[in-house]
Design brief:
It is globular and about 85 Å long. It contains eight helices and five strands. The chain is mainly alpha-helical. A hairpin with a 3-residue loop joins strand 3 (46-49) and strand 4 (53-56).
């Protein structure tokens, strides 16, 4: 198994970052819900396996580390990944919170992931939010669905690219189901109606034959 450091040392696809940290956020939330906290929040203590399976390796404690500290370390690691990926992955989880607060605008502008991306990190660093990244994305997805199909395209423009990746994947699955349904319907129509017409012609011919004879 490889660590998160190993994984991002050769994988610089930005679309993967959102998926990776979405799953890591869910794992962290699960730990917190069970009264545990992550003791050492480092990319070297996060184990990666194929299929986007992640684990915080033997790295839990009974809230000796506060949830707030975990939330900050998670945000630093995620934002630092976006920031450093193009030049070589670096772990920013131990960089001071004050540095992120002072440079947040410039960092988010340089990684160019959209307004929702900035808002999440601003909420964590400057407004004291402990909202899980997975919950934040899920909430944005729900807002998008409620927003309705007529406004979907304009709303999507202000979404973070990470969130959009999830939404596009969801749309593709829904469209695939619709495509399969339409194809099946077309196939049924193609086979059924000609057969019905053929049977009707046979019946009409049979009736005419009886009258003639």
């Amino acid at each position: 198994m490889q660590t998160l450091t190993d994984y991002f040392s050769y994988n610089n696809d930005y679309t993967e970052v959102g998926k990776v940290f979405y799953n890591l956020s869910k794992k962290m939330k699960e730990a917190h819900n069970n009264g545990m906290a992550i003791l050492y929040f480092s990319s070297n203590n996060i184990i990666y396996d194929n299929g986007f399976k992640f684990a915080y390796q033997d790295n839990f404690n009974n809230y000796n580390v506060e949830k707030r500290e975990n939330s900050l370390s998670f945000a630093k690691l995620m934002l630092g990944t976006y920031l450093s990926l193009s030049t070589g992955f670096k772990d920013f989880s131990n960089v001071s919170t004050e540095w992120f607060q002072l440079n947040l605008n410039d960092i988010c502008s340089s990684v160019n992931q959209g307004n929702d991306f900035y808002n999440y990190f601003n909420n964590v660093f400057n407004l004291g939010s402990d909202e899980y990244y997975c919950d934040y994305l899920d909430k944005k997805m729900q807002e998008r669905r409620l927003d309705g199909a007529s406004n979907t395209n304009s709303y999507r423009k202000v979404l973070s690219n990470a969130a959009s990746a999830f939404y596009e994947q969801s749309d593709e699955e829904e469209n695939s189901d619709l495509f399969d349904y339409n194809n099946k319907t077309a196939l049924i129509n193609k086979l059924f109606y000609p057969s019905l017409l053929f049977c009707s012609l046979i019946i009409i011919v049979s009736i005419l034959y009886l009258f003639i004879n």
